[in-house]
Design a protein that fits this description.
Four copies of one chain form a homotetramer.
Chain A lengths: L10 E5 L13 H18 L5 H7 L1 E12 L8 E11 L3 E10 L4 E14 L4 E2 L6 H15 L1
Chain lengths: 149, 149, 149, 149
Amino acid sequence: MTIDLNSFRFSSPARIRFAETDCNGHMSHVTAVIYMEQARADFLNGLGLFSIEEMTKSGKTFVLAKQTIEYQNQAYYYDDIDTYLRVSRIGRSSLEMEYVLFNRTRNNITGLGGSTIVYFDVQTQKSTSLPSDMPQLIDQFETRFLSKA
Amino acid sequence: MTIDLNSFRFSSPARIRFAETDCNGHMSHVTAVIYMEQARADFLNGLGLFSIEEMTKSGKTFVLAKQTIEYQNQAYYYDDIDTYLRVSRIGRSSLEMEYVLFNRTRNNITGLGGSTIVYFDVQTQKSTSLPSDMPQLIDQFETRFLSKA
Amino acid sequence: MTIDLNSFRFSSPARIRFAETDCNGHMSHVTAVIYMEQARADFLNGLGLFSIEEMTKSGKTFVLAKQTIEYQNQAYYYDDIDTYLRVSRIGRSSLEMEYVLFNRTRNNITGLGGSTIVYFDVQTQKSTSLPSDMPQLIDQFETRFLSKA
Amino acid sequence: MTIDLNSFRFSSPARIRFAETDCNGHMSHVTAVIYMEQARADFLNGLGLFSIEEMTKSGKTFVLAKQTIEYQNQAYYYDDIDTYLRVSRIGRSSLEMEYVLFNRTRNNITGLGGSTIVYFDVQTQKSTSLPSDMPQLIDQFETRFLSKA
């Protein structure tokens, strides 16, 4: 499979911490899941939907419903990993996202991921509708992000 | 989907730590991945393939190639989670596993998972053949486990 | 220094997970801090002060004010660590605790710790008085714990 | 106590991840320990003593011998924390360090820390002498760091 990173309009950087490795000598598989969460949080924050203030005001948060990850290359302490993210499907109350963890230090792909998240009403403990202008919100944020990058 | 836990012959218990929750107030999704790793490690240790001593002697370890997880119910600090695990496919150098995270405190399913792991030669940094008697190793361990449970 | 584990009346067990090691090949120092938290949570739960239900009802929680740890011996994946804990001082709204992380697998001390925790009112975001019968609560819990051990 | 951040010549930035919070709603105390490790790793890497390549070549690493931390203010998801670090004592094989975790988002101090680390020979599993020119190494790195900041 060829991954075209240029088809992604957003990424979030991380440098592998010592505590994020394990006794196999490389980055723990758990770390990849944390980097995907970081990218997702940065993205949703950029949309204005995932700050502490916004979540407190709206009474809404996001919860993870499903996640997949495929590990391709080992990564090591202090490698620079950029987690690319794009929204592949917008549902009524859910978002599907795709991820590429790209290792800038070794110029290879650490892993590929996918996730489904659900917009969630804290009071009712049920899923809730996403803002109706999600496509615009996403496009505006990604455009802003690209212009700064 | 009906999950028949009786079709599983192995499980590994954990109690959710405070540090394993997040500011959504529930168990972090990351924790589920760690519990799956713990169950896998307990299982592979039971087979005699994943102790420090064995890995040092054989020069072989297991690495995670692929993982999926589907979250079904929120879990909370101090809930007791049993992670059930079974091998669904034995390849030449890979194992496919299925997981159910069962919340004993709330009597519901926290999540369902799947993973593919690869037996890995540390020296050559390549996959390596599993022992040829894997089915017997697994059956003997699970029988031993069940008789103690 | 001689540590007399018999002077402790409470301990909490953990087995080192793969994800709790680092690329130095041993247990991450971070793990020790998590085990101390687990022992503390088990202890405070035993006192009836730190369950989700109790904290929701009382509007009170505990926060960590200070912690020290001294690492003595390396510990490894799958070692069994018992974290011993005792209360060394009861203040108006704070508790001082001492910890010994004892490695049962290697029969040595992984580390020694100390912490100060503060009883905290979530509404006012200020420290709050501990129950006046803390010495009795502690003695009763430890006696119950010892009788089961 | 007054902390003069200007007396520090090095810091390392982090933004609090969702997974680094806990169900008290704030940054987990464990996270502070990880940020101190990150600052320490960045610092030791800057000295040329803590990269994978250097550690493999020299057969030497650093292990944590002792750590203290005092928590001063709660920090929250997505706050920006700068961990300031300075060496307070250079021993034969050990370094003592002081830390300030400064919350840039809230303009207050999250915590103050201290640690002792030991230079460690992986082969002999014993402490080993630090380079004799540690004061110069440190001064050169900090000067370089300040000129870039």
